[in-house]
Design brief:
Helix content: 25-40%
Radius of gyration: 25 Å
Shape: globular
Distance between the termini: 54 Å
Length: 503
Amino acid sequence: MKTVIKCCIWLVVAYFATTNIARSQQPKSPLKVLFVGYDPSQPMPVFKNRYPGEMTDVGFAAQYPVRMPAFKALLDQYFTVVATIDCRDWKPKDSDPYDVTIFDFKPAALEPSRQEKKANGEVDYIAARYLPDNFSKPVIFIASTAGEMGERIGLKLDWLCLCLDADAHHLNTHHAIFNGPLEKVTPTLEMKQTPAGIYEYTTGNTVPKQIPMWRVQKTGYLDSKDCRVGLVSRGNRFTDSPDAEVISSGVCQKDVGAVALGRHGNFFLWGFSASPADMTDVAKKVFVNTVAYMKQFDGKIPIARKYNERMATTNDVKEIIACATKEKYMAEVKMLNDFNDARKKQKKVVTEKLAAGQELTFEEKQMQPYLDALEPIPSWEDYLKQTMGPLAGQFGTDVAAYQQYMKENFDYLYCDPQGFFTYSVDNDAKKIGVPNHNIQFLATCISMLQHNDQPDLALKMLKKYTAQDFTTPGEWHSWFEQNKKKIFFTETGGYKFLVNTYN
């Protein structure tokens, strides 16, 4: 282990020497930056089960002396003030003097996670709190810190999958982080094989077999088991509010719209996992551009909060409708059989090694408790019940009738923001006669109130689809006229019309 650490230190020294020369004569930005990670001068933590980012114990030990110094060295080249703090010591007030805070690992929780029993007997899981709801300083999350720290405060930077590798694709190269404000850079794009996972979703039907990609880090977890794994967030309806933007996806096991680089309010997801010691030269420049870019979002906290990462969106419903076919069912059966075969082979290897008195690898130790858990193979009827959800009882195996019904009623879908991918047709909204995503829906409901036309229905819809609690037609009319140019509909932010509070 000492040899590994010594090699890492020499790598950092070499990194300092080469990168500092390049920037020595260029003026620095006056931004003040705080980096929050593990300080190698403090004892290395030991984790009982999994290490952060699915690193092995060897991989984590190798990265421990490298990450913070490498980030500090890169940031020092571009910014006048760069401070570091161990994540175990960070408190929200520590970010007050700085323009941008970078979280490489999560800090100590302000509140632990807990479970709460609801009146109906169900149990809610309440995520740990790492940030106050109103934390307004610009933040950059590295990899898994976004999902870990953002869940409690309702960020769209959620934990879709800890499976992001080393390449970005579907980039918006016109975005500011590629064009300044510190250095204009042109990502080198190379045609590579499209990740197989993209074709598991209907959104991948038109994606070519090869797509242009930008290498963000030199080594990914698919190259080395000791690498930290990156994070992608759900892209479905990510940009349905004016406080969010998507910059790129990346190589992962999810759909083509999974977010690898994106922003929600004053929070930025840098989903890739590498420290500057393993970033490509272009990626290092894009990263410092991102730091400078985020300064303008000081105080711009998210408008639309996503408190349930497993809520359905209309994008999910489109996928559900498309999956209600025999072809998709057979693909699902094949995937489950392949998974079970692979797990049986893993179990055989582990069993034989234990019988021979051999030491299991880190990954084998992690997998051992799950090797007997094979996935059940559903019947066609069970598959449809799982796919259609509550509507399965209405349509049974009549897929054509189900798809026709969904097509005719799509404009009146309601996706429960508290549900587990729950959706339904809102028959009350359908009585209004205007799609419930259209701002004219509000105007019609207010007009119905004013003219005493089904006022109970109109008021019910206004309260369901907005965050307001007015009771009189005059109050609703005044609010609508004052804000109608700033009103937007968000699915992920509660399936409501909200008001854009940004200038």
